[in-house]
Amino acid sequence: MTPVSSRTAITDRPVLDVFAERWSTRIFDASAPLDEDAFGSALEAARWAPSASNTQPWRAVVARRGTAEHQRIMDALMGFNQEWAGSASALVAFVAEIAREDGEPMPWAVYDTGQAAAYFTIQAHAGGLATHQMGGFHRDQVAAAFDIDPRFEVISVVAVGVLGDPADVSEKIRERENAPRTRRPIAETLIADA
């Protein structure tokens, strides 16, 4: 049971190839160096994500494999994520500025930070990198590990690197990797469609 390097989604309507081809792998090459050019382009794409009033309420913690920062994020991951994420070349924590310095709430910040993370993953895929976004981590632990101001909230952690060899991972990870790619139909997603 070996996953293929492409898991193109079967979509109901045409979409850009980069959307149909991107998936969240759990198999990273633990020895591959990070392609710094492709990674830099992914960060640049995140920088150009849209935001309310151009507030750009996102920040990122970049932690490359083999560094103390990478280990700090690994220590904050929950359960199954700890089994596979350490092989990624880098872990990127996306952080939202949920309040201005004067304390005024920025209720759109989490949404805008999500867009920045999405732009990051799409550009990373287009540049030949694999990614996997995670919500299974201890937010307070990441915030404390990097002395993040309480005005900011850690939203997600993205593993990024080179797609690995299925033979190098456990059967449990291979099974998850080979699970069918499915999405709820659009008709079940729309609350209204007038």
Automatic annotation (TrEMBL):
<dbReference type="InterPro" id="IPR029479">
    <property type="entry name" value="Nitroreductase"/>
</dbReference>
<dbReference type="GO" id="GO:0016491">
    <property type="term" value="F:oxidoreductase activity"/>
</dbReference>
<keyword id="KW-0560">Oxidoreductase</keyword>
<dbReference type="InterPro" id="IPR000415">
    <property type="entry name" value="Nitroreductase-like"/>
</dbReference>
<comment type="similarity">
    <text>Belongs to the nitroreductase family.</text>
</comment>
<dbReference type="Pfam" id="PF00881">
    <property type="entry name" value="Nitroreductase"/>
</dbReference>
<feature type="domain" description="Nitroreductase">
    <location>
        <begin position="20"/>
        <end position="82"/>
    </location>
</feature>
<protein>
    <submittedName>
        <fullName>Nitroreductase</fullName>
    </submittedName>
</protein>
